[in-house]
Amino acid sequence: MSNVHDQLRTIEATARTLDATVAAHEAAFDPTVYMHADGSVVATGDMDLGGFDIDNVGDLGVGTVTPDRSLHVEEDSAATDTVTQVFRLTSTSSGTPANGIGVGMEFEVETTAGNEVGATIECVATDVSSGSEDFDLVFKTMVAGVSADPRLTLSATTSALMTHHGTAVGNGFDCNDAHIGTWIGSVNFAYFGHKAVKATAGSYSMLAQNDGATYLNAASTKLIDFRINNVTTMHMGANALHFPDLKGIYLGTGDDAAIYYSGTDLVVDPKVVGSGRVAIPGSLEVADGFATAGSSRNANMTVWSDNAFGMELSGIGGAPCLLLYGRATDTDAIKFGTYTANSTAQSNFTQRAVLTSAGGFGVGVSAPAAGKVDALGGFADNGTAGIDKTFSFSDGAFQTHSVIISGGIITQWNIA
Questions:
Q1: Which residues of 118-138 are buried (b: 16+ CB within 10 A; e: fewer)?
Q2: Which residues contact 155 (CB under 8 A, 6 or more apart)?
Q3: Is residue 199 a part of any domain in this protein?
Q4: Strand-pair partners of 392
Q5: Quick one: how far is CA 123 from the chain centroid?
Q6: Domain span including residue 301
Q7: Are residues 125 and 189 in the same domain?
Q8: How many angstroms separate the Cα of 18 from the Cα of each of 14, 30, 35, 271, 358?
Q9: pLDDT of residue 405
Q10: Would 264 be classed as within a structural domain?
Q11: Domain annotation covers residue 112
Q12: What confidence category does residue 291 fall into, taking pLDDT thresholds of 50, 70 and 90?
């Protein structure tokens, strides 16, 4: 009987020892880990397994004991200027690899229809031959409930380095209605334009050349519109630059001068800045052939809105001639004179001659008689006072006659 008691006491002591051992292990290894019958593992606290950590909220850390995502991979190395590879997906085959084998990852999201794979990123071998391996990187997304299809492919093929929606872009790619790429006319130009006209060399919107030059363009018969706040302020056609009414070219740092169309007239406005003058270093030409007698007036240069002051080329008498004219309603139609050098005051004008609207021409006379030439001081020949000269002429019978003028007065007739 004592032997039985001894064995029982030994078993009890052993149990106490096991309990103490388990308690010691539990104290050293916190948390307690449970495995359910379905194979799932539950941790009541964090488990530091030395570079591999599972915390009690389900985050898994590799290389970190404080993961802040469901999967957190961290690599601490001495690298300073190189890429550190910290993640690898590997696909192997028990058979013979062939073109099309690859590895990828799926992005699954819960929707009202259940869990859907909305996108994938795949690395696909397009040439598995030893020494000449090629791979494509393919991005796929689900659209309109259809399983993820290729949207963008980065290819190893030089003839199609990129494909978009399954189509090789070669010279570029489409982004909605825009096309961005290399111009089909030359590889030296970057292209931007509408995808509908990308196959037409002359229909681009903008080219940037490899030497830095930039070209704006519109297709044949189309315009280039320049807009401010979506309102066209000017447009360029095949032959000209067009401005709407009251819009034009403004010059100078503070809009010091302007050229524009008022709706009725072309306005060249120096805006009284600086000299306030319109200077033409070369020549000014107003040319439109000439209007023959009885036709409408020709292109002219006027200095007043009623076209009554100025000059024009006309065809009076059937041959072109220059007309210099004043207004018929003014007594003095045209005045000839001089200004004091560099004078800006009208009072410094000195009249030398005048043509009246009645047909009188006066030199040194302010009011010549109508239809007469009136010269103050008479006429001069070669700078001498008066004219002393004999004129000889023949009549129809070949007789020679002469007239002697002295002091501007006919003093003698010599009739043959």
A1: bbbebebbeebeeeeeebbeb
A2: 126, 136, 161, 162, 163, 168
A3: yes
A4: 402
A5: 40
A6: 291-378
A7: no
A8: 6, 18, 21, 108, 144
A9: 63
A10: yes
A11: yes
A12: low
Matching residue, tokens 């009202």: 112
Give CA 135 to chain center in angstroms.
39
Residue 17 lies in a domain: no
Q: Which residue has the tokens 């130009």?
A: 189
Residues 109, 146, single domain; the answer is yes
- In DSSP terms, which residues pair with 54 in a beta bridge? 47, 60
pLDDT of residue 316: 66
Q: How far is CA 191 from CA 152, 180, 220, 238, 270, in A?
A: 20, 6, 17, 21, 41
Task: Report the domain count for the chain.
Answer: 5
Burial grade of 219 (CB within 10 A; 0-12, 13-18, 19 or more): middle
Q: Read off the pLDDT of residues 98-133 as tens digits, 9 standing for 90 and up.
A: 999 999 999 999 999 999 999 999 999 999 999 999
- Tell me the C-alpha distance between 407 and 286, whole Å: 44
Q: Does residue 301 share a domain with residue 336?
A: yes
Do 264 and 301 lie in one domain? The reply is: no
- pTM confidence score: 0.43
